[in-house]
Design goal:
The protein has about 900 residues and is α/β, with parallel strands linked by helices. It is about 35% helix and about 20% strand. It has 29 helices and 38 strands. The longest helix has 21 residues. Bound molecules: adenosine-5'-triphosphate (ATP) (2 copies) and magnesium ion (2 copies). The site of one magnesium ion has 5 residues, from helix 17. One magnesium ion binds next to strand 21.
């Protein structure tokens, strides 16, 4: 077997709209192409031994063991690899279920599609599944140690890519609210929402967390001072820089017990609490000094450690934190109890799990000693032995939810403290003997205020109710009624995408909003070019969706990007599908026009339930997409009698038609006239029917989003795509007594479109035609036939780069086509393109049109420029 290609899909795609994270592996089965599993000796026995858990895969039989029974009866290796790739991920703790395997047009080559949670792990699973199956085919088995290594690698990949617990909680809540999110490329930042309505978080810092507040919170002494000045209870204490100041400081604080901690510290590092004499104080001073230049000396407040989480001015949760400890069972030693405690699957290393494992180090030995224990002591049943003096979760502590128990006075104090420091999300550390009583009554204090407080102790407390503390964060960032998205308008089809995208963007600009749009020519925001190039894929779309100024996104969505990685967005507000005609067939395993329609249909299917799919009623492959649309549908047609459109209107639907020379929008009984086609420069004086169709689609897209008819009219009558912006796309030049048109038509539908315009030209029509040598013979013959139909006079020329064809060959085929269509045709053959173009232009008659299908548009422009055209587009006055 050989893997030919692995694609990673990240949005709605050809295979599924809902399952967006998919791996697509193109796999050549080679010698296994003709061998279903039942004909491979020992395969079934081998696979059930290596992966017995495949028994859980129901597959098409729909029952436990369903998939394995298919392996027994005989199924193709691609299908087996799909299930193995899913199973490997499951075994590594990543829950996935969706898979599909399809033959391609190339015999023996399959597309194996399956879900992933993490991209890297998904790609790894693809390769591992092939390796595993190949090994069973060749040796009857796959070594246990290799399988274990695969699972371990997958787990590592999954863990490395996983979001931190706080970020994950926020992102999950966003998903539940339908708020889109995307990771940004730096500093673990996450974008919530799109465009101008986006917000950002980084763990539990939000874009509203002020730098002054965060820095104040990080300065423990400053925080205490500010709080003390406001009458908030804080520990009595002072800061020392040198050992010889320590004695006085302790006296200042008011004698033992005391706490010594680094001025700049976190996670409990360098802290010693409950210090009772001078000797301990000196030791504690040295420990704190290792972490920070200055050291805090504080009175020790007996009590329990609490974390009060304040979000947007309100207490969201309260947790009591208990330092790492073990409880005796009457026969185990402390060490044994620690080992048992650490077996808890909730305990991991650092912050990667709900709890952290207890580690034994010098600090814990000290703490044990103070309690009169050692690691070998056997604890009495029910006796508690602490292994840490401080309650940080990151040193093995646990958290107990106390949200319902906190005294209202303490709520008020915590909320006020958060406000005084200025933090939108604050973790207030309170030491008190009893959180249910006012701090003042029991001599409780706020020891610290934390910026970016962790959420995991509230989301997954060891005891008590989990609290959804992500909800108030999202309530704060997106209060009720505040939008998180921007309208997304996605345009697809075989021809006319760029023109329609530009038209929609231009119409929208009339509303005064900032429009971000992507096209074959580049990414634009407002009037500015962001990046040049073919930018019709999801990455370019994301540039728009990530931009904090963009109010409306208009995205040309070409087939390549959908195939390569799926759409950039989960759903769009308007999906425009212009047409589907044969083009690029055979590329990317899209071999038939039906498959092509299915691919473009992804845009129609991704229209949100509140949005509109704008469908071409004149194109049966497009209008059939109505079946898949979850939102509303609006049809456009060049034919007012179109039956589908008429039915749709009768049912009160929205539509746009070209009727009596006018573009109109019809809604129910009402016809809203937009404008006469001749007044739209893009329609070339009303002579280019396909451009009228594009304008109808664009008008509907805008109208469906609430843009007024007046704005649509203003947009349509002022839209001009300059030659510089869209070279080779219906570029018409006024050369005084005649016109020249340069177009880079590249498929049958666009030749026909061009023809539909040329035939409307009132004067003489001259065509200078030819095409790249890699087209099929029949394409040249068809081009000849078409040319004979639309031109009064034809000059056949040849591209310089003949792509392997002998000179004159293509021209001969075109000539054949011309004569087949009309033996009386007026034509000549001039192989050199420059000569042919110059001759055509030299001999042009008054009122005539010379149409050039050039090898390169720049070459044709040069020859035209030399003749000093009056205007670039006669209809763009
Ligand atoms: P973290 O990063 O986890 O918040 P930290 O290194 O910032 O820890 P502090 O919050 O100042 O350190 O102290 C850690 C813990 O030590 C407190 O939560 C509390 O349990 C205890 N502690 C600190 N100061 C005092 C004090 N004056 N009296 C009693 N206990 C204290
Ligand atoms: P590409 O796939 O190359 O990006 P596109 O779909 O963006 O093309 P445009 O750039 O708008 O299409 O137009 C390309 C050419 O297709 C035009 O010059 C014209 O000849 C033709 N064309 C434009 N609109 C239509 C249409 N609605 N139907 C058929 N042909 C069209
Ligand atoms: Mg703290
Ligand atoms: Mg385009």
């Amino acid at each position: 077997m050989k893997i030919q290609k692995i694609l990673t899909l990240r949005g709605p795609n050809y295979w599924s709209i809902r399952r967006q994270k998919l791996i697509v592996m193109r796999l050549d089965l080679e010698d296994l192409a003709e061998k279903p599993s039942n004909t491979i000796p020992g395969f079934y026995e081998g696979i059930i031994k290596v992966l017995p858990s495949l028994d859980n895969h129901f597959c098409s039989p729909g029952v436990r063991g369903g998939f394995l029974s298919r392996v027994k009866e005989g199924t193709m290796m691609g299908h087996i690899i799909e299930h193995v790739a899913l199973e490997l991920q499951e075994m590594a703790g990543m829950l996935v279920g969706f898979g599909r395997t399809r033959e391609t047009a190339t015999p023996g080559v399959y597309q194996v599609v399956f879900e992933y949670i993490d991209e890297q792990a998904g790609r790894y699973a693809a390769r591992a599944a092939v390796r595993l199956c190949q090994s069973i085919v060749s040796t009857g088995t796959y070594s246990q140690s290799e399988l274990e290594q695969d699972i371990k690698d997958l787990e590592d990949l999954g863990r490395d890519a996983a979001l931190g617990p706080s970020t994950e909680a926020i992102v999950k809540e966003a998903e539940a609210r339908g708020i889109p999110w995307l990771p940004l490329s730096a500093r673990s930042m996450i974008q919530l929402g799109y465009g101008v309505n986006q917000k950002r978080i980084q763990a539990t810092l939000s874009n509203r967390s002020g730098i002054l507040a965060v820095e104040l919170a990080c300065d423990k002494e400053g925080t205490k001072q500010i709080l003390r000045d406001s009458g908030v209870p804080v520990p009595r204490g002072t800061v020392v820089h040198y050992l010889d100041e320590l004695k006085d400081a302790i006296a200042d604080v008011g004698s033992y017990p005391i706490v010594i901690k680094p001025l700049n510290g976190n996670h409990g590092r360098g802290i010693t609490i409950d210090i009772r004499d001078w000797e301990e104080s000196q030791k504690a001073y040295d420990i704190a000094k290792e972490v920070s230049r200055a050291v805090i000396v504080e009175r020790y407040y007996a009590g329990f450690d609490h974390r009060v989480l304040v979000i947007n001015g309100k207490v969201a949760a309260v947790a009591q934190r208990i330092p790492a400890h073990v409880i005796g069972d009457g026969h185990s030693t402390v060490q044994e109890l620690i080992d048992q405690t650490n077996l808890d699957p909730h305990r991991g290393d650092g912050h990667d799990n709900v709890l952290t494992r207890i580690i034994v180090d010098e600090t814990s030995l000290d703490v044990l000693e103070r309690q009169g224990y050692s690691l070998d002591s056997v604890l009495k049943k029910g006796a508690t032995s602490y292994l840490r003096a401080t309650a940080n979760l990151s040193t093995g502590g646990i958290a107990v939810d106390r949200t319902n128990d906190i005294h209202p006075d303490n709520i008020w104090i915590a909320e006020r403290a958060a406000k005084i420091i200025g933090l939108d999300i604050a973790g207030i550390d309170i030491v008190t003997a009893d959180i249910t009583k006012p701090l003042r009554e029991v001599d409780g204090v706020i020891v610290e205020v934390n910026a970016a407080p962790g959420f995991r102790m509230h989301v997954c407390p060891s005891q008590g109710l989990p609290r959804n503390v992500a909800a108030p964060v999202l309530d704060m960032l997106f209060p009720p009624g505040k939008p998180h998205r921007i309208p997304i308008i996605s345009i697809t089809g075989t021809n006319g995408k760029t023109t329609t995208t530009r038209l929609i963007a231009h119409i929208y600009k009339q509303t005064g909003q900032v429009i971000g749009y992507t096209t074959t020519d580049g990414i634009y925001i407002g009037e500015h070019l962001v990046e040049k190039g073919d930018t019709t894929g999801p990455q370019s779309a994301q540039v728009i969706l990530k931009d904090p100024t963009v109010e409306v996104a208009v995205l040309e969505t070409a087939r390549g990007g959908i195939l390569r990685s799926g759409l950039a967005f989960e759903s769009c507000d308007v999906g425009v599908i212009l047409n589907v005609s044969p083009d690029h067939l055979g590329i990317g395993d899209i071999d038939t026009i039906e498959q092509l329609a299915h691919l473009k249909g992804v845009v129609a299917e991704s229209v949100s339930p509140y949005g509109y799919a704008i469908l071409n009623a004149d194109d049966p492959l497009v209008s059939a997409m109505v079946e898949k649309v979850k939102g509303h549908v609006a049809f456009f047609s060049m034919n007012p009698e179109n039956e589908l459109l008429q039915n749709h209107i009768r049912q009160g639907g929205l539509a746009a038609v070209y009727e009596n020379g006018y573009l109109s929008i019809i809604r129910g009984d009402w016809t809203l006239r937009i404008e006469e086609a001749v007044h739209l420069p893009v329609t070339m004086g009303g002579m280019a029917p396909f451009m009228i169709a594009n304008a109808l689609a664009a008008s509907l897209a805008a109208f469906a989003q609430g843009v007024t008819i007046e704005a649509i009219r203003a947009g349509l009558t002022t839209f001009r795509a300059s030659v510089a912006q869209t070279p080779g796309r219906m570029n018409l030049f006024n050369l005084g007594h005649f016109h020249a048109l340069v177009d880079y038509a590249h498929n049958v539908a666009s030749y026909e479109a061009l023809g539909s315009f040329v035939c409307n030209w009132p004067g003489e029509r001259v065509g200078i035609v030819g095409g790249p040598g890699d087209r099929r013979d029949e394409d040249f013959i068809n081009l000849g036939k078409l040319a004979a139909k639309i031109f009064n006079r034809i000059i056949v020329k040849e591209d310089e780069d003949r792509r392997g064809r002998p000179s004159g060959d293509a021209a001969e085929l075109i000539r054949k086509g011309i004569l087949l269509e009309n033996p009386q045709s007026n034509y000549e053959v001039i192989l050199n393109e420059e000569e042919a173009v110059n001759k055509g232009l030299d001999e042009a008659v008054s009122g005539g049109l010379v149409v050039i299908l050039p090898e390169t548009v720049s070459g044709a422009f040069r020859l035209i420029e030399a003749r000093h055209p009056i205007a670039e587009n006669a209809f763009q006055a």
